[in-house]
Amino acid sequence: MNESDQSIAAASRPHHPEGDEPFPPQPVVRTDPPPPERETRAPGLWQRLKDFLVPGQPSFREDLRSALQDEENGDPSLSGSERTMLANVLKLSATRVDDVMVPRVDIEAVEEEETLGRLVQILRDSGHSRLPVYADS
Q1: Per-residue pLDDT tens for 13-37?
Q2: Which residues, including other chains, have CB under 8 Å from residue 45's CB and lie 6 or more apart?
Q3: pTM for this structure?
Q4: Distance from C-alpha of 70 to C-alpha of 76, rounded to nearest angstrom
Q5: Measured torsion, CA atoms of residues 31, 34, 35, 39, in degrees rounded to the nearest 10
Q6: DSSP-assigned letters across all residues of the chain
Q7: Cα–Cα distance between 72 and 87 in angstroms, integer?
């Protein structure tokens, strides 16, 4: 080993003054709680993809239909308005965007610089309580 190699080796060793030996290494003790079990985590992409592609488990839609059927058979865990809302959610998948969208030319909107008096008049005439606000168009 030449002088350069000895310098590098010495520099890589920890320096301890004479008689001042380092403490022996202590074991690492984790105080963190253990990681949650696999079942409590949200399913990852692969699990969701597998669940989508592999039939056999009832879908959320089927579970919801079943729950609504149970409600009709006397299980009172949902109120009437909740049951109606969930039934409408199931029907929503058959609704097309064209059925609910408003053509741009028919949208009631106000310019950003509109006066308060004119805004109140537009709200009264339109029958809406809120309107989109636009600028520079």
Answers
A1: 555 555 555 555 666 666 666 665 5
A2: none
A3: 0.34
A4: 9
A5: -160
A6: --HHHHHHHHHHSPP--TT-PPPPPPPP---SPPPPPGGGSPP-HHHHHHHHHS--SPPHHHHHHHHHHHHHTT-TTS-HHHHHHHHHHHHHTT--HHHH---GGG---EETT--HHHHHHHHHHHT-S---EE---
A7: 12
